[in-house]
Design brief:
Blueprint lengths: L5 H6 L7 E3 H11 L4 E4 L6 H9 L3 E4 L3 H15 L3 E5 L3 H16 L3 E7 L2 H5 L10 H5 L5 E4 L6 H13 L5 E7 H4 L2 E3 H6 L15 H12 L4 E5 L1 H5 L3 H11 L3 E3 L19 H7 L2 E5 L20 E6 L13 E4 L2 H11 L9 H23 L7 H13 L5 E5 L2 H9 L8 E3 L9 H12 L3 E6 H5 L5 H6 L4 E7 L27 H6 L4 E5 L2 H14 L3 E6 L30
This protein binds adenosine-5'-diphosphate, ligand TPW and magnesium ion.
The site of magnesium ion has 5 residues, from α20.
Length: 583
């Protein structure tokens, strides 16, 4: 029997629908579970799936490359606490999406990559099918879980399972394989409807044991120099009020990890962000809230940390405890429940940061802020990162609703320090992997999910990884302003090739006109050579509410190798001492 095309059936919505097919069941199952947006790239066998989803009222955002669609889905998951959905075609499209799926898993963002796949019997006997690949096996190592739906009557179960796996416990990326044959399979509509279900409590609260809470309270109460580290898990948890209450009622200084900036406003009096080194070096009891003690925190090791520091860790993933340092008081549970329990089980005033410690950090902060103000005052020409980023900071300070996306090396490190955040979950960046290429995908998702303006501060190299999505931004007329720190290179634009005239490995075209490229798609392009021009362009672009791109011409000799993480380069005999071969 030949299946009616999904569009035929959609058009005949009023006729008695006796039969349904895989396409309809997928869309019905997604809608039943409140999926309202799909990010993807179409092709065989999922083109009609995207069309049908759109016809049924799901917003479909079509990208130019699956990696960017996947990054968008991941960001949507982070911002909404619901799994973001990425839709890909078989083999190459599927593989293009995998970087984003793996990155989402690494960052603990919930997403589901749904991919069409080729004929199972041909794939399994390697008969050479169109876009043949064993996608389920390929996806396994890169995600939290990978599932395949092999029968049309399992679609509801498969989708429910994928959505729950993505958001429950530690969130992450889930792969869901749907072979073409399953999408095209027909079944009785009434029977089909019975196979679908709506998830009950997809990410249930996970309460900590009372004795674990009391242990942590005791440790914090005895601390001379307590410190809280807020990570992006704390931002994700959307327990903003509870976290604020705990921080403010105990007076404990805190440092935000980059994506937790704004969870409490960066100008909060208890923020020790501007005395971070001192805070880490001297804290005697450290409470990690949704932050892993990974490379971004120097694994909790001396000399950055006090070697005698004791750690309290709040995390939903039990096996995260002790991954780097012994955790003296593990608090396994969801952040909202754990922080509530800490508030409830501690007596008023029992946990209180000693004034001397707060003053010590406050004094260091004041010194560092003054130093930074000096550096920000300088306005050399050609423009430096600081000048351009100060201009960006001043414009978006007036508009706290703006989402900030940020990637690059120097463009990332300097913007993170210069641009304060005032609202939770408004900063999205390269994250746990330090990955390049998240820029346009994250920016598109932030605009689509929130309807608010987005400023994407991008290194010129970083931008190139997802740059073609400026067409997507213009096509959907999204309020995204891309600000490129164009120093003509990866890290710097003045590196030389020691052998011949070809560009060096880190060289890019500093004369590149990203603004002109943007205008090719009908967006508004600006070129800025001074901070004043950056201010004018960004102010106008945000006021317009439409897509814009500002190419900031930065001194090619500005920037340092690898930004703030140069120490992670291997230390061989060649470093900084390369002798060219004789010709
Ligand atoms: P950062 O990079 O900001 O330091 P990480 O990504 O390293 O943050 O850490 C985030 C942590 O938050 C992960 O270990 C994850 O398991 C945890 N997490 C995510 N959501 C929750 C939640 N709702 N409750 C508790 N822990 C959570
Ligand atoms: C997927 C390696 C880290 S930072 C960077 C690269 C290529 C670009 C730095 O140059 P940019 O910034 O963006 O111009 P700036 O301001 O310092 O000049 N591939 C991937 N991820 C990473 N991290 C890299 C390569 C890298
Ligand atoms: Mg650069």
């Amino acid at each position: 029997m030949t299946a009616p095309s999904p569009l035929e059936t959609a058009a005949n919505a009023d006729a008695p629908a006796e039969l349904t097919d895989g396409y309809h069941l997928v869309v019905d199952a997604l809608k039943m579970n409140d999926v309202d947006t799909i990010y993807g790239v179409v092709g065989i066998p999922i083109t009609d799936l995207a069309r049908l989803a759109q016809a049924q009222g799901i917003r479909y955002v079509g990208f130019r490359h699956e990696s960017n669609a996947g990054h968008a889905a991941a960001a949507a998951g982070y911002l909404t606490k619901k799994a973001g959905i990425c839709l890909t075609v078989s083999a190459p499209g599927f593989l293009n999406g995998l970087v984003a799926l793996a990155n989402a898993t690494t960052n603990c963002f919930p997403m589901v990559q749904i991919s069409g796949s080729s004929e199972r019997h041909l794939v399994d006997l390697k008969q050479g099918d169109y876009e043949e690949m064993d996608q389920l096996a390929a996806a396994q190592p890169f995600c939290k879980a990978a599932y395949r739906i092999s029968r049309v009557e399992d679609i509801g179960r498969g989708i429910a399972r994928a959505l729950r796996t993505a958001v429950s416990g530690r969130p992450g990326g889930v792969y869901l394989d749907i072979p073409a044959a399953v999408l095209g399979s027909i079944m009785d509509a009434e029977e089909g409807a019975k196979t679908l279900s709506r998830l009950v409590d997809p990410a249930p609260r996970q309460l900590p044991a009372p004795e674990s809470v009391d242990r942590a309270i005791e440790l914090l109460a005895g601390a001379q120099r307590p410190l809280i580290v807020l990570g992006k898990g704390a931002a994700y948890a959307q327990a903003d009020a509870q976290i604020r209450e705990f921080v403010e009622s105990t007076g404990i200084p805190y440092v935000p990890m980059s994506m937790a900036k704004g969870l409490l406003p960066d100008d909060h009096p208890q923020s020790a962000a501007t005395a971070r080194s001192l805070a880490l070096k001297k804290a005697d009891v450290v409470m990690l809230v949704g932050a892993r003690l990974n490379w971004l925190l120097n694994h909790g090791e001396a000399p950055q940390w006090n070697p005698d520091a004791k750690f309290v860790q709040i995390d939903i993933e039990a096996k995260e405890m002790d991954s780097n340092q012994p955790i003296a008081a593990p608090l396994v549970g969801d952040i909202e429940s754990v922080v509530e329990a800490l508030i409830e089980r501690s007596k008023p005033g029992q946990i209180a940061a000693p004034a001397a410690w707060r003053e010590e950090l406050g004094a260091r902060s004041a010194q560092n802020v003054a130093k930074m103000a000096e550096r920000l005052k300088a306005d050399p020409h050609p423009m430096q990162f600081m000048g351009a980023l100060k201009a960006v900071r001043d414009v978006i300070r007036e508009r706290p609703e703006v989402y900030l996306v940020n990637e690059g090396a120097n463009a990332l490190d300097i913007a993170r320090n210069v641009i304060d955040m005032h609202v939770p979950r408004h900063r999205l960046d390269s994250g746990t992997w330090g990955v390049m290429g998240i820029g346009m995908g994250y920016a598109i998702a932030a605009a689509v999910e929130s309807g608010q303006p987005v400023v994407a501060v991008e290194g010129d190299s970083a931008f190139g990884f997802s740059g073609m999505e400026i067409e997507t931004i213009c096509r959907y007329k999204l309020p995204v302003v891309t600000v490129i720190m164009n120093n003509g290179g990866v890290y710097r634009g003045d590196d030389v090739n020691l052998y011949d005239d070809a560009p060096s490995p880190t060289t890019l075209m500093s004369a590149a006109r990203h603004d002109v490229m943007f205008e090719a798609f009908g967006g508004k392009g600006y070129r800025a050579t001074t901070p004043a021009e950056v201010t004018a362009a960004l102010t106008e672009a945000l006021a317009s509410g439409g897509p814009a791109l500002i190419d900031c011409v930065i001194d090619p000799s500005a920037g340092t190798e690898s930004g703030h993480i140069a120490h992670l380069n291997p230390k061989g005999i060649t470093v900084g001492n390369i002798t060219p071969a004789k010709k």
